[in-house]
Amino acid sequence: MNNKNYGILIVDDEKIVRESLYKWFLEDGYRVDTAENAAEALRKLQSATFDIAFVDIKMPGMDGLELQRHLKDIDKSLTVIIITAFASVDSAVRALKDGAYDYVTKPIDPDELTHIVNNIINQKKLLTENIQLREKIDELTQFDEIVGDSLQIKKVFELISTVAKTDTTVLIRGESGTGKELVARAIHAHSSRKYFPIIPVNCGAINDNLLESELFGHEKGAFTGAQYRRKGKFEMADGGSIFFDEIGCVSERLQVDLLRVLEAKQFTRVGGEQVINVDVRVICATNKDLELAVKEGKFREDLYYRLNVFTIFLPPLRERKSDIPQLANHFMKKFSQVMNKPVTQIDPEAMDVLVRYDWPGNIRELANAIERAMVVGKPPQISKEDLPFQLINTNGIKPASDSIEEIEKIHILKILNQCNWNISKSAEVLDIDRATLYNKINKYNLKNR
């Protein structure tokens, strides 16, 4: 600990007390100053900052209790410790009621003093670290991962900002790959719960028999293999948010349990009897038609209305094509850093292919396409030939079929172009001999354009 970062002011009309405390704290590495009366102490606080002030309760003129009030007016973060020769309950209670941290009696015990000061400094350090952590979280809680400036996505930003300030349950709807989890995390990150966790639950990826234990936890011995007590997702999310992805996949049996928790905000672990209270914000996402599921009796109507309080619809990528260049560049920069590969731009022809494609897999498919292009391509740019086969082949013509020969033809031509039709180098990259490569070129009638 660098004690020089912390300042201590000693206010006492007894010279021996001032000198003793000054020496003790100076040896411990603190910044130390002294004052023999209240007037001098107030002057010194105007020209310097202190973290701790030791104030004698009995001094000529202004006493320690009155000085404490003036010190707090100047610096509310200043911690005051009262020094008294009269270990009376009255003086201690008055000092503590007026905001003193503690009091010590004369003759002063150096060990007691060290203990008190260490506690104060540790508390101040934790407070500072907490403030810095919150500031860091605030810096990170932007819409950085949700990219675009189309009217559709700007509307989504507005809805996120509006609902984030509340504790309202949110249902995010949209096709697979449109970024529903990113929106859920943005809502949490801009809410008052952002300093607590957001716990995701993928309802479609967990077996129904295990989902109950995942959500509510279980006690030791609750079922075969339950060798210890385990907290569930609801407990882990206490104070924060819980995100149910693919909520439409939850079984009818679990829908009843889920509705009960949402309404009562309490539950019991599997195999347990203790009632556990939780304070969580619920955010859900689905790509299913919940209204149809309600009509068909596959989704409880009361749960549907409990979840469908505030809805955000995410448009598919084909309906916000103006955002594709920005998204593509975003993923290019992201994967460039991850792969440590100096790719800085996307060729205009490649960008044209990206914009014209309909992206049935939405943003997730676009991200995968850019990642794949980063792997096979060469710096400093992504070219049309680096894009996946399903988008376009190197001649600008969509493949006639998904046959192995068609894919092989496209791949060989791409490598030949990348190697500037150097046959030896191309054969080495393709891991075939030169004679085989010549045969393939003739077979597929490939030409250097």
Q: What does the model show?
A:
This protein is of the alpha/beta class and 449 residues long. It has helices spanning 15-27, 38-47, 64-74, 89-97, 110-140, 151-164, 180-189, 208-216, 233-236, 252-264, 290-295, 301-307, 324-339, 348-356, 362-376, 404-418, 423-430, 434-443, and strands spanning 7-11, 31-35, 52-56, 79-84, 102-105, 170-173, 198-202, 241-245, 266-268, 275-277, 281-286, 310-313, 345-346, 381-382. Strands 2-1-3-4-5 form a five-stranded parallel β-sheet, with helices on both faces. Strands 7-8-11-6-12 form a five-stranded parallel β-sheet. Strands 9-10 form a two-stranded antiparallel ribbon. β1 (7-11), α1 (15-27) and β2 form a beta-alpha-beta unit. α6 packs across α7 and α13 packs across α15 (362-376). The model is unreliable at 137-142 and 393-402 (pLDDT under 50).
Record keyword descriptors for this entry.
Rossmann fold, five-stranded parallel sheet, single chain, 4 domains, Helicase, Ruva Protein, domain 3, alpha/beta, 14 strands, 449 residues, 47% helix
